[in-house]
């Protein structure tokens, strides 16, 4: 049985872009990140109680996990929590590809357990979910969750784990003002009713919802996120302007408002922080309460933008 209830901070930190750093980066984010800059991010986050770090082998083929571990060096393992993933498309051909991928992640991160382990997508729920059970039993993973799963797939994974006395403790899906498929599909409600933590990823739509990027200042040329978002930036202007105005009254930015919105909806945002000042934003977002009227107004503006930001790896919920 799972030993302790899953207990995590109000916001988790995402490190997909960290896999993109330096010479081995794959150009997804087009960010220029340095070891010293990321160390600053870690120090500021850790000292403010943001101690849950989300990564995956898939982020830069191991680079995000390695860079994260280097950036966390010196901290006691009990001071932070690691969240990483089994990605079915990267499975090896050994007898137990889930255990093998986990072992590689543990080696890269210099640890012998992961606090939260995910099946990254539902490519074959019946095949991969059972492999989590021995890893939970051995304590190599403390808690499990499923990502990019729809309602039926979450229920199937939960049944499989339930037969061994475990359960799906967390769900991690794309959820932002612009992309509310999990809400419409009843997944948020299911999570609330079953005390399953819902982690929302890409609440900032990879930078497009921060107000920092605009047609005049687009996402980095040549990056995959530029291809996904630059063409729709003009349609987001009214929304990001309104988020900025709502934030201004409280000394906060448009990005802080986007994060606060995801918290107001009862979810735990995973924010992809790349600079120390992004952590200041999380602190502001944590204390920012949006009125129901503001939430409704922002959602209406998001609907009016009428954009589809579903990632290439996602299915409709
Ligand atoms: N399970 C899955 O399939 C899945 C899929 C996607 C993401 N995720 C997880 O969710 C995390 C978040 O998603 P993401 O990193 O793709 O995108 P995101 O959080 O929507 O956006 C991250 C980008 O927003 C900018 N940013 C972050 N904080 C900011 C702030 N306070 N103010 C202004 N700009 C800010 C940064 O851009 P600049 O660097 O340009 O400043 C950063 O690269 C990932 O890192 C990953 O851990 C999971």
UniProtKB/TrEMBL annotation:
Q: Which CDD domains match?
A: AKR_unchar
Cell division in keyword set:
no
GO cellular component term, pick one: cytosol
Q: Does the keyword Oxidoreductase apply?
A: yes
Instruction: Write out the entry's keywords from A to Z.
Output: Oxidoreductase
Q: Which InterPro entries does the protein's record reference? A: AKR, AKR_Detox_Biosynth, NAD(P)_OxRdtase_dom_sf, NADP_OxRdtase_dom
Q: Which PANTHER family match?
A: NAD(P)-LINKED OXIDOREDUCTASE SUPERFAMILY PROTEIN, NADH-SPECIFIC METHYLGLYOXAL REDUCTASE-RELATED
| The protein, known as | Aldo/keto reductase
Q: Which organism is it from?
A: Actinospica acidithermotolerans
């Amino acid at each position: 049985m799972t030993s302790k209830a899953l207990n995590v901070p109000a916001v988790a930190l995402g490190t997909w872009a960290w896999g993109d750093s330096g010479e081995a980066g794959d150009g997804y984010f087009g960010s220029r990140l340095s070891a010293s800059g990321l160390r600053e991010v870690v120090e500021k986050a850790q000292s403010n109680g943001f101690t849950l770090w989300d990564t995956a082998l898939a982020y830069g083929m191991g680079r995000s996990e390695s860079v994260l571990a280097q950036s966390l060096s010196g901290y006691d393992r009990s001071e932070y929590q690691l969240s990483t993933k089994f990605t079915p498309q990267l499975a090896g051909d050994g007898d137990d590809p889930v255990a093998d991928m986990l072992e590689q992640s543990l080696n890269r991160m210099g640890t012998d357990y992961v606090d939260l382990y995910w099946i990254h997508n539902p490519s074959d729920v019946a095949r991969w979910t059972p492999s989590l059970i021995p890893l939970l039993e051995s304590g190599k993973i403390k808690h499990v969750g499923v990502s990019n799963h729809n309602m039926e797939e979450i229920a199937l994974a939960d049944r499989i784990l339930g037969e061994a006395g475990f359960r799906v403790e967390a769900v991690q899906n794309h959820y932002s003002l612009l992309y509310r498929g999990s809400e419409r599909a009843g997944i948020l409600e299911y999570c609330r009713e079953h005390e399953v933590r819902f982690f929302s990823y890409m609440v900032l739509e990879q930078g497009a919802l921060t107000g920092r990027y605009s047609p005049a200042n687009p996402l980095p040329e040549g990056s995959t996120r530029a291809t996904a978002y630059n063409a729709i930036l003009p349609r987001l202007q009214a929304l990001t302007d309104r988020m900025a105005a709502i934030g201004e009254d409280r000394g906060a930015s448009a990005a802080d408002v986007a994060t606060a919105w995801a918290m107001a909806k009862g979810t735990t945002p995973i924010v992809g922080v790349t600079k120390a000042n992004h952590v200041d934003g999380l602190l502001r977002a944590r204390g920012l309460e949006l009125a129901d009227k503001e939430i409704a107004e922002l959602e209406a503006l998001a609907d009016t933008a009428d954009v589809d930001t579903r990632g290439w790896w996602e299915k409709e919920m």
